[in-house]
């Protein structure tokens, strides 16, 4: 098989972008920087592979050096002593069998040695890197045949910061978006071609597979336990010391800030584990500084799209395995289009901390001394990075096509109309400050045709008509691409959906009516989107001005100083055009509104038969009920899209309802909850939230509320338990919330709000409460529990080591214990 070079394309920034020049490196060509004679994207021969920018890696003995440094850590030694002491004091067995503190320390060091081997990257073998470069070249060349696209200006800026990091021994912290397992390969491959030291990649230990894990480890991956481990001080200390060591040595680190792959196409809320360690290392002076590099990775076609769709619609997640990796080889022959990588402007973490401390409004803000302030700083840091990623993100041609197809009222669209709408959408994204993938001078029609070919499995083509008509045959899969666009127009989407209830009125009062609706929706959905900080009034004003300029709405101002004292209505031209633009914005948000409505109505499944009481239901059962309830409503015609029972969105909805106090969570079920006997207080006020959507110059979202801990069981809060007879006569705070959310649902045949429909829907919640998922076969249960069994076996191995140690001591002591043994 001939060796093929993956086409890395540093393409020209055109179409109202920045005007920077771009180059294209295709198969068999070299990219040369002006004024230089050598290939500047990476080593021109294998002899130059150590000639990269950054701290030294890939030398014999690298892993041994890291282990030696970790074993010298005083913090780790102290944690070992404390762990052994705790084990010694908590021993409850026979006194004669009690292990000595010295033995326990040795056992603890044995455990730490094993944990270090399971944790650290071992970038010692250059031959492995050579093999992986060859393999990744071929993988990317086959899968993404239209190349990897990068801006020249961003390459120059990145290499400038890399040289700064090398000269000052500062780590570069790469913080990418995470849509696919391909991300790992792409980032390392591009950095290798750019001649920048490969990063140490944070990965979950579920990827530490036989055969595959050691190769990934030798290419920079270090594996941490999945799930919470903050309650295990010894392991936490080990990971923190390892991160500190990497920062101290100036090694680059790659962290996926979302913690897991986004299966919906939009950014997930940040995970703060490793990010917290990096921030505190700089904050407390354990590392002098580091360089933050947010980046976005965009795909024409995400290879896991079909798998994501199955998981979100209720299928069990398939654990990573060697068999899964092998079966993925079938995708290598696919032609999945292009990849676009965009690097946000790097910055020093210390500079971010200084800026936040200076601009924080609360008195005596001191994150170095105050744990609460430190948490606020961390949340601000996380959302700042997400905002950087969003700002750098590229809207791919497939996202443009997918968005158009999913925002139509009709069954399909002709080719010429599709091209017109894609061109309009592209212009609007650029006008809003977004970035669209470089078309390279191609006509929009050609771009659309290429996009259609890349996502052909999700789009149907009706032939035998006067013109080709395209329609979505897999709308759920297409939603992953549409969701790349929504954050650009989130303000417009929320405002237009807020107008929905009174859209047929001649005029809507901006204040308080429209303002209250916008505040309610933005606060309800704040777990889904990244908002800009600032006053809600400013956002409503700016969004109305934008929509007025586009001819979507007509604003009649009262003439007083308050700009929000007027009224708004649909512009006559927009009505004449069939509400085309207005509908597009609404269609972007409606699937999320529908899902939150399903989640809220679905809480009636927690109500005990007849009302007045709420049962405790485990999280898995509740999610299964909600999905089956939503699926039934979809097939009965009450919901317009399968996204309304998307597992990820329903999960976010439950978390938000818990924050609002509608449901409460416990680690274990308790006694049945009784409804509040006295008149309940008004519902949580979502209408006058101070920070909702307005743009600003600080972090892209105000610090989020403390994260709600995961619970195993849920029940309704007493104030939200409906009274007896709620099915025949819907009432109570929970029903009021259902109706409030329902006001913003998609209009049309799926929107049926009369009493008969309400009673029927509530009766369905009783059926959902009694519904039991089909019992899995033995094989399915064994496969589903594979990860748990592997983890349990590791714990058992350690227990057996301890038991063996105790047995040896008993044998040495003799006596009754030995006889018994």
From TrEMBL:
One Pfam family per UniProt: GPAT_C
Main location: membrane
Annotated localization: Endomembrane system
UniProt entry keywords in alphabetical sequence: Acyltransferase, Membrane, Transferase
A Gene Ontology molecular function term of the record: glycerol-3-phosphate O-acyltransferase activity
Gene Ontology CC entries for this record: endomembrane system; mitochondrial membrane
Family from the record: Belongs to the GPAT/DAPAT family.
Protein name: Acyltransferase-domain-containing protein
UniProt source species: Gonapodya prolifera (strain JEL478)
Lineage, broadest ranks: Eukaryota, Fungi, Fungi incertae sedis, Chytridiomycota, Chytridiomycota incertae sedis
């Amino acid at each position: 098989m001939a060796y093929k070079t993956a086409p890395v394309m540093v393409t020209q920034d055109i179409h109202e972008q920045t005007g920077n020049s771009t180059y294209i490196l295709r198969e068999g060509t070299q990219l040369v920087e002006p004024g230089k004679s050598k290939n500047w994207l990476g080593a021109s021969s294998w002899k130059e592979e150590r000639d990269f920018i950054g701290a030294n890696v890939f030398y014999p003995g690298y892993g041994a050096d890291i282990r030696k440094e970790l074993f010298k850590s005083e913090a780790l030694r102290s944690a070992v002593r404390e762990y052994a002491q705790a084990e010694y004091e908590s021993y409850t067995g026979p006194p004669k069998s009690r292990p000595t503190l010295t033995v326990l320390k040795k056992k603890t060091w044995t455990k730490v040695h094993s944990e270090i081997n399971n944790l650290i990257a071992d970038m010692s073998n250059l031959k492995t890197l050579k093999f992986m470069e060859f393999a990744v070249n071929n993988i990317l060349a086959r899968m993404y045949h239209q190349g990897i696209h990068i801006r020249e200006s961003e390459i120059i800026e990145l290499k400038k910061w890399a040289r700064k990091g090398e000269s000052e021994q500062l780590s570069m912290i790469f913080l990418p978006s995470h849509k696919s397992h391909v991300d790992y390969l792409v980032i390392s491959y591009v950095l290798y071609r750019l001649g920048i030291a490969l990063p140490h990649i944070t990965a979950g230990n579920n990827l530490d597979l036989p055969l595959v894990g050691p190769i990934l480890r030798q290419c920079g991956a270090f594996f941490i336990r999945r799930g919470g481990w903050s309650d295990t001080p010894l392991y936490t200390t080990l990971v923190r010391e390892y991160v500190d060591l990497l920062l101290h040595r100036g090694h680059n680190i790659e962290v996926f800030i979302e913690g897991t792959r986004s299966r919906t196409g939009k950014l997930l809320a940040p995970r703060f584990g490793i990010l917290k360690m990096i921030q505190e290392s700089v904050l407390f002076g354990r590392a002098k500084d580091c360089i933050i590099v947010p980046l976005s990775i965009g795909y024409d076609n995400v290879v896991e799209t079909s798998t994501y769709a199955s998981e979100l619609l209720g299928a069990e997640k398939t654990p990573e395995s060697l068999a899964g990796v092998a079966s993925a080889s079938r995708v290598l022959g696919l032609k999945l289009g292009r990849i676009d990588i965009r690097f946000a402007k790097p910055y020093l973490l210390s500079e971010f901390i200084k800026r936040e401390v200076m601009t924080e409004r609360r008195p005596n803000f001191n994150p170095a001394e105050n744990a609460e302030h430190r948490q606020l700083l961390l949340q601000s840091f996380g959302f700042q990075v997400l905002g950087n990623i969003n700002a750098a993100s590229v809207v791919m041609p497939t996202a443009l096509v997918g968005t158009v197809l999913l925002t139509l009222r009709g069954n399909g669209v002709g080719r010429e109309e599709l091209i017109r709408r894609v061109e309009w959408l592209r212009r609007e994204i650029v006008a809003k400050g977004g970035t669209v993938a470089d078309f390279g001078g191609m006509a929009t029609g050609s771009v659309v045709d290429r996009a259609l070919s890349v996502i052909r499995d999700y789009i149907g083509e009706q032939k035998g008509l006067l013109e080709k008509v395209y329609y979505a045959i897999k709308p759920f899969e297409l939603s992953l691409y549409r969701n790349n666009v929504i954050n650009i127009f989130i303000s417009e989407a929320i405002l237009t959906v807020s107008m929905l209830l009174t859209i047929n009125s001649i005029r809507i009062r901006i204040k308080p009516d429209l303002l209250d609706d916008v505040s309610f929706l933005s606060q309800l959905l704040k777990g889904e989107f990244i908002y800009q900080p600032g006053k809600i009034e400013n956002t409503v004003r700016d969004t109305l001005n934008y929509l007025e300029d586009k001819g979507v709405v007509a604003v009649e101002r009262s003439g007083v100083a308050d700009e929000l004292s007027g009224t708004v209505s649909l512009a006559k031209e927009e009505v004449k055009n069939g509400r085309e633009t207005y509908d597009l914005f609404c269609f972007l948000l409606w699937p999320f509104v529908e899902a939150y409505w399903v989640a809220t109505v679905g809480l009636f499944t927690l109500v005990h038969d007849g009302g007045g009481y709420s049962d405790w239901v485990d999280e898995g059962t509740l999610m299964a009920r909600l999905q089956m309830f939503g699926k039934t409503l979809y097939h009965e015609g009450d919901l317009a899209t399968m996204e309304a029972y998307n597992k990820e969105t329903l999960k976010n909805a439950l978390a938000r309802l818990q924050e609002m106090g509608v449901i409460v969570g416990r680690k274990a079920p308790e006694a049945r909850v009784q409804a509040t006997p006295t008149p309940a207080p008004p519902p949580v006020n979502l209408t006058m939230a101070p920070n909702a959507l307005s743009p600003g110059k600080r972090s892209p979202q105000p610090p989020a509320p403390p994260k709600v801990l995961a619970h195993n069981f849920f029940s309704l809060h007493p104030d939200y338990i409906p009274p007896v007879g709620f099915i025949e006569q819907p009432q109570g705070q929970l029903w009021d919330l259902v109706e409030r959310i329902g006001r913003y649902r998609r209009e049309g045949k799926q929107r049926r709000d009369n009493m008969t429909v309400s009673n029927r829907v509530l009766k369905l919640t009783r059926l959902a409460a009694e519904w039991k998922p089909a019992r899995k076969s033995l094989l399915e249960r064994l496969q589903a529990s594979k990860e748990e069994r592997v983890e349990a076996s590791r714990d058992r191995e350690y227990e057996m080591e301890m038991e063996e140690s105790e047995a040896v001591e008993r044998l040495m002591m003799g006596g009754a214990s030995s006889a018994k043994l």
